[in-house]
Amino acid sequence: MTLLRSWVESANSADTNFPLNNLPYGVFAVDSETMPRCGVAIGDMIFDLFKAEEDGLITVADDAVFDVPYWNDFMELGRDAWSALRTQLTALLAEGATELHDYLVAQADVEMELPIAVSEYTDFYAGMQHAKNMGAILRGSPDLPANWLHIPVGYNGRASSVVVSGTDIHRPNGQMKAPDAAIPSFGPTKRLDIELEMGAIVGTGCAMGRPITVDQADDMIFGYVLLNDWSARDIQGWEYQPLGPFQGKAFGTTISPWIVTAAALEPFRTSVPEREMELLPYLDSTKDGLFDIELNVLMQPKGADKASLLATTNYSRMYYSAAEQLCHHAVGGCGMATGDLLGSGTISGPTPDEYGSLMEKSWAGREPFTLDTGETRTFIEDGDTLTLTGAAKGDGYKIGFGACVGTILPAKSFPV
Q1: Which of 52, 88, 238, 321 is 20 to 30 A from 192 via CA?
Q2: How would DSSP label each residue in 221-237?
Q3: Which residues does 415 contact at the CB level (< 8 Å), separation at least 6?
């Protein structure tokens, strides 16, 4: 597919993340006194869906669905409504259509909000290179856990800690134990990290006790966001045995502001890797489950003029697809809901310039790396800004997500 041209001129640039081919969905606020509303990114502008629906330009249901500051009401309408909206938007914004400038708002003039009301959040551990690296770092061996090649390993996280790009994150306090200490200590984490992930958003759910196939799961996924699952490695290392992540992962998860729909990513589908062990039949699928999406990690210290590129990798590095993860999540009878968020797990490639976490990049702090400013890092310091970017690249256009950004603030004092 080639670039689809729009009457919104900024959408026709090869550099934009938001051509007519994309049409990602978000929630924006024009000021503090006006309720946030649903919108569609097109070039450097936002098409106001609340106003368009109110004026009858857009119709997807008998009742209004864009008069609320989240996309959940629309998502639960299902795939036919998803397709109908995309068709209407493409026609309204295409080159040659009536130019509806009164419905456009500059992205530079708004504040972005969480695009969905997050129902539940589940984080997976589905990148093979990351799993092998973590095994080598923590256990001295890259051998995978016995279950890893058979199931998408994951844990239930905290929906209450999911925030939109641009939200500052305070360094978390918690318990940690030095290897040579007799008892744990309490205080701010010293090993604050990121995890480069993709997030899949469940658009239509399934009832408790009703398993789904991988193909059904794929149809349930509304779209994708960039996701940074911030991690306190020292807190996590003390608490995770035997039950897994808890406070070391519960203090913040940042997502990009725009939901790139599964429909926009369809031309970029690619297959999961060849399996080292045949999966059980319930994880079979007739579709390619991954997408060719280039991903970057950048770090900018406080006061620095520019960010340093730390890693470049690709979503196609994953071992399990989001649809396989969703299928496995529901197979035991767990009900899934509109607005559920599934983190892919850290995405890493085979070389250090593709590692999606600082734990890997610095090999648990043993190998400091140098930024473009000349400063060195092993983990995140206060004032550092971490940015994830990503885009699928077509013929003369790209399907981007907008940046996933967070700045680390000092830990808050614990009440005594």
Answers
A1: 321
A2: EEEEEEEEE-EEHHHHH
A3: none
Q: 384, 279, 370: which is closest to 331 by C-alpha?
A: 279
Query: Do the beta carbons of residue 339 and residue 322 sit within 8 Å?
Result: no
Phi, then psi, of 69 in degrees rounded to 5: -90, 45
Closest residue by Cα to residue 28 from 117, 106, 113: 113
Please name the residue that has the structure tokens 């984490």. Answer: 189
Active site (annotated) includes residue 150: no
Tokens of 7: 């009457």
d(CA 248, CA 234): 8
Q: What is the mean pLDDT of each run of 10 residues along the chain (416 residues)?
A: 96 97 98 92 98 96 94 98 98 98 98 98 97 96 96 96 98 95 96 98 97 98 98 96 92 98 98 95 96 98 97 98 98 98 98 98 98 98 98 96 98 81
Catalytic residue among 130, 150, 328, 329: 130
Tell me how far the alpha carbon of residue 21 is from its chain's centroid: 20
Q: Please state, in angstroms and rounded to a whole number, the distance separating the CA atoms of residues 172 and 411.
A: 6
d(CA 290, CA 222): 14
Strands 221-229 and 385-393 turn out to be unpaired
User: Which residue from 244, 243, 234, 248 is spatially nearest to 177, judged by alpha carbons?
Assistant: 234
Global pTM reads: 0.97
